[in-house]
């Protein structure tokens, strides 16, 4: 079975580290290519958590443009979820986005519609 190349944008969401820990428990399924955190305060607060040890920290653009990227975990602050989810979906990258789905239902509905297309 081909491993899924997966990455994570954001480490600020309270569930982000747990999601990464779970993915890393299944190395036969997932190839974690890296993590992107655009907010330096979150890097300082959570960048050294065990869930992220040994993983490369990339820019958002590097992660989004990684060859053969299969999926992204979107784990930013709630106010930024829709922005980063939209960047991935617009490139055709499947996402797992934590709840809540942003701060505006209309934007979330539009994201779902774009993903369906």
Structure characterization notes:
By secondary structure, the chain is an alpha/beta fold. 39% of the residues lie in helices and 19% in strands. The chain is built from five helices and five strands. It has a five-stranded parallel beta sheet, with helices on both faces. Strand 2 (30-36), helix 2 and strand 3 (57-58) form a beta-alpha-beta unit.
Ordered list of secondary-structure elements with their pairings:
Elements (H helix, E strand, L loop, with lengths): L3 E6 L6 H9 L5 E7 L3 H7 L10 E2 L1 H5 L6 E4 L3 H13 L4 E3 L7 H12 L1
Parallel strand pairs: 1-2, 1-4, 2-3, 4-5
What percent of residues adopt helix (DSSP H or I)?
25-40%
Give the integer mean of the pLDDT values.
94
How far the N terminus sits from the C terminus, by CA atoms, comes to 27 Å
> Rg from C-alpha positions?
13 Å
Helix count? Answer: 5
- Runs in which pLDDT lies below 50 for 5 or more consecutive residues are none
Structural class: alpha/beta
Tell me the total number of β-strands: 5
- Can you summarize the main beta sheet? 5 strands, parallel
Estimate the global geometry from the Cα principal axes.
globular
Strand line-up across the major sheet: 3-2-1-4-5
Q: How do the SSEs run, as a string of H and E?
A: EHEHEHEHEH
Strand content: 15-25%
Question: What's this model, at a glance?
Answer:
The protein is α/β, with parallel strands linked by helices and 117 residues long. It is 39% helix and 19% strand.
Primary descriptors:
117 residues, globular, alpha/beta
């Amino acid at each position: 079975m081909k491993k899924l190349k997966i990455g994570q944008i954001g480490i600020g969401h309270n569930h982000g580290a747990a999601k990464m820990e779970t993915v890393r428990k299944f190395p036969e399924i997932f190839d974690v290519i890296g993590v992107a955190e655009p907010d330096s305060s979150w890097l300082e607060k959570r960048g050294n958590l065990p869930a992220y040890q040994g993983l490369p920290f990339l820019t958002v653009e590097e992660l989004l443009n990684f060859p053969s990227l299969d999926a992204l975990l979107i784990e930013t602050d709630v106010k930024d979820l829709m922005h980063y989810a939209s960047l991935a979906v617009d490139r055709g990258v499947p996402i797992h986005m934590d709840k809540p789905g942003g701060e505006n239902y209309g934007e979330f509905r539009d994201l779902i519609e774009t993903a369906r297309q």
